[in-house]
C-alpha cells in the first residue's frame, strides 16, 4: 500500500496555513491543495515558496464557499449572491444552464490561472466539498485542466455501499477521468478507511485537514492526530 497524504484547504485561514505549513516542513504530508479565492491564499503561496514545497501544491477548486474571482458568474444568481459570494451546495443543483456552465468554467479557469500566476506548477486538482465529483462540474474541470496541462484529478471518496446507483455513478466518474487521459490513485479515502487496504498493492490518497491544537497537529474534521498516520515512505502525485 502506498499513500499520498494531501491536506485540503490551504489558504482558508491563517491558522490552517500555519498547520499545513508545519506538516509540509516536517514531512507529515505529501502535498496540499490551495484555495485561490480565500483571503489567505497569498500568504499560503508565500509560505510554500519560503519553505520550498511549491512543487507539491495542487488546486482546491472552490464553488461552494468564498468569493468568486471571475466576472460572468456574478450574473448567475443561483450560484452567487449579490456580493459575489458562492451560495450553492453540493448536490443542490442537478442541472446548469448554458450561461451557468460557461460561468463555472470561467471561474475554474480564473482560480487555476491565479495559482499559475504565482509561479505554482499545480501537481493535481481536487475541490472544496468535493464539488468536482458532480458530473457536469467534472466535465468543465477536465476541459480547463487540459488547457493548463494538469494531468491528475482526485476521485470521489471511497466507501462501501450496497447502493447500485452510487456504485455506477462512482464508476462513471472514474471511467471519465481515465478516458480523458488523467492519472489518479486507486482510491481516495479518509483515515477510517485505511484498514480496508492493509497489505494490498494499491495507491491511496488520504485526505486530511490540519489544525494545531496545543502541541499537537490534528485533523479539524475528525480531531485525530495527523502525526504517524503514514506507513513509511510518503507517495507523491508525480510518482503516478
Automatic annotation (TrEMBL):
MF annotations from Gene Ontology: deacetylase activity; hydrolase activity; metal ion binding
Alphabetical list of InterPro entries matching this protein: Glyco_hydro/deAcase_b/a-brl, YdjC-like
Keyword Metal-binding in annotation: yes
Cofactor(s) essential for the protein: Mg(2+)
Domain of life: Bacteria
Claim: Metal-binding is one of the keywords in the record: yes
The protein's name: ChbG/HpnK family deacetylase
Organism: Butyricimonas faecihominis
Amino acid at each position: 500500500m502506498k499513500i499520498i497524504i494531501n491536506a485540503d484547504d490551504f489558504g482558508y485561514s491563517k491558522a490552517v496555513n500555519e498547520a499545513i505549513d508545519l506538516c509540509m516542513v516536517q514531512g507529515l504530508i505529501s502535498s496540499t491543495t490551495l484555495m485561490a479565492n480565500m483571503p489567505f491564499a497569498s500568504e499560503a503561496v508565500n509560505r510554500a515558496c519560503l519553505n520550498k514545497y511549491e512543487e507539491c501544491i495542487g488546486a482546491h477548486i472552490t464553488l461552494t464557499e468564498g468569493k468568486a474571482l471571475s466576472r460572468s458568474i456574478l450574473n448567475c444568481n443561483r450560484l452567487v449572491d449579490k456580493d459575489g459570494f458562492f451560495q450553492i451546495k453540493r448536490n443542490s443543483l442537478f442541472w446548469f444552464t448554458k450561461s451557468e456552465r460557461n460561468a463555472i468554467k470561467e471561474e475554474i479557469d480564473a482560480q487555476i490561472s491565479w495559482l499559475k500566476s504565482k509561479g505554482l506548477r499545480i501537481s493535481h486538482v481536487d475541490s472544496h466539498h468535493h464539488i468536482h465529483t458532480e458530473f457536469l462540474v467534472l466535465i468543465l474541470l477536465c476541459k480547463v485542466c487540459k488547457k493548463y496541462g494538469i494531468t491528475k484529478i482526485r476521485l470521489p471518496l471511497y466507501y462501501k455501499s450496497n447502493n447500485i446507483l452510487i456504485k455506477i455513478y462512482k464508476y462513471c466518474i472514474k471511467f471519465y477521468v481515465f478516458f480523458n487521459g488523467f492519472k489518479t490513485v486507486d482510491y481516495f479515502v479518509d483515515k477510517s478507511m485505511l484498514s480496508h487496504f492493509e497489505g494490498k498493492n494499491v495507491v491511496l490518497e488520504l485526505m486530511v485537514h490540519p489544525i494545531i491544537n496545543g502541541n499537537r497537529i490534528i485533523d479539524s474534521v475528525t480531531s485525530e492526530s495527523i502525526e504517524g498516520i503514514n506507513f513509511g515512505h510518503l507517495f507523491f502525485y508525480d510518482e503516478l
